[in-house]
Amino acid sequence: MLIVLEGCDGSGKTTLANKLAAILDAEIIHCTTETPNDYSFFSQIIAMAEERNIIADRFCYGQFVYQKPEERKLDSVDLYHLELYMMKSGAKVIYVYCDEDIIKERLDERGEIPIRPVGEILSAYSSVLSKSLLPIKIAETSEPTTHYMKFPRDGEYR
User: Fold this and answer.
1) Whole-model pTM?
2) Residue 35, Cβ neighbours under 10 Å: how many?
3) What is the 3-state secondary structure (H, E, C) of 79-124?
4) CA distance 59 to 31
5) Which residues pair with 125 in a beta bridge?
């Protein structure tokens, strides 16, 4: 099983990934600027998830939010094919959403400066995920994890 967590830095993806991994006995894969992030890399993760539980702390969508088109290793056709593969494999995608001001507070506490204004990142995620072939679940993480592990807001983009 593959569960993909997407969202702005500071939204709570890693916290949620750790909680879910403990519950599901899953491996966490962090997709960062250091990972290959090309079609083959993401396809391999989807294939591995057919054998074991994997939580992806960010996945293929992030580069459409954080990178300019010329910086990406995927294009929209690659994303389409990855989503078809994800659908076939039963992958779940969760958008980890948090209030903009709370994200800013969390990033300040960690000493991190976002590469773009947080509002722009949230807007870009909304745009990218609204076009997804997959139903996108939303985990609202503005409250402490004791609240959002219950998934009180079971929204979808579609």
Assistant:
1) 0.88
2) 13
3) HHHHHHHHHHHCCEEEEEECCHHHHHHHHHHHCCCCCCCHHHHHHH
4) 6
5) none
Q: What is the mean pLDDT of the chain?
A: 91
Hey, what are 22's tokens?
Answer: 């403990």
Q: Please state the separation of Cα 80 from the chain's center in Å.
A: 16
Size (the chain), residues: 158
pLDDT digits (tens, 9 = 90+) for 14-34: 999 999 999 999 999 999 889
Spatial CA neighbour of 93 closest among 42, 33, 34: 42
Q: What is the pLDDT of residue 158?
A: 38
Tokens at 20, concatenated: 């879910």
DSSP state of 71: G
Structure tokens at 30: 């962090």
Q: Give the residue, 134 or 143, on which the prediction is more confident.
A: 134
Q: Taking a C-beta distance cutoff of 8 angstroms, is the pair 138, 5 a contact?
A: no
Q: Give the mean model confidence (pLDDT) for residues 138-153.
A: 66
All domains of the chain in start order, with CATH: 2-148 (3.40.50.300)
Q: Which residues contact 110 (CB under 8 A, 6 or more apart)?
A: 10
